Amino acid sequence: PACDAPKPRPRRVRGIDLESSHFVSFAQASLLPPGRDAFVVLADVIQDVTGQTHQLYVRDTDGRDVLLKFHLALEVNERWVQDEIPVGGGGMVCIRNPRIHRFLDGQVGLRIEDHDMATNFKYFAGCDIASFKRINEKLTQSLCEPKCEKCANPEARSLCSKCRCARYCTRDCQQQHWRIHKYVCNIVKTLREYEELFGTNPNPNIS
């Protein structure tokens, strides 16, 4: 990862606002009007219940277990299962604009199709919602009180060029810290990209 000086882009130099109306639970997503395309469901992967179709149980931010099914063409399925779809339990999924679907067995859950995989679905192994919230809070604090993520040097002025949250005083510090930072870096980068898309398509407040 490259380390560069912060640029005057205030929308990017901050933590992720997980309390905004764009980040919703399964129940909240099911109440959004058709065509609304500015929200994300975060969920922990709880159990792999794959049969003829790849499917999981995930737990959303309200603690509700939800069925998540992948309906993919065979060639797409083979590629994505190998690289991007959770196998077994553990990890966190980020689903942008998910479709609420009633399956043939009567269960209501989330359905992922071929075209979702490139832009609307992300799987992050080795992390869960609780851990990410703690890390995001720490990153937000470090932006308010700049210090190097590796050595705590208060003179840290450079930002990770991918997530633009983590600060470092030298390239050496960034390289040494990458083993720890890489797990959250892609999550922050993904959610930040979603936030910026949402900036031009605001959600109504959801209670």
UniProtKB/TrEMBL annotation:
UniProt keyword list: Metal-binding, Zinc, Zinc-finger
Under Gene Ontology molecular function, one entry of this record is: zinc ion binding
Query: Where is the MYND-type domain positioned along the sequence?
Result: 148-185
* Keyword Electron transport belongs to the record: no
Query: InterPro entries, alphabetically?
Result: Znf_MYND
Q: Where is the signal peptide?
A: none
Superkingdom of origin: Eukaryota
What is this protein identified as?
A: MYND-type domain-containing protein
Q: Which organism is it from?
A: Exidia glandulosa HHB12029
Q: What is the lineage of its organism?
A: Eukaryota, Fungi, Dikarya, Basidiomycota, Agaricomycotina
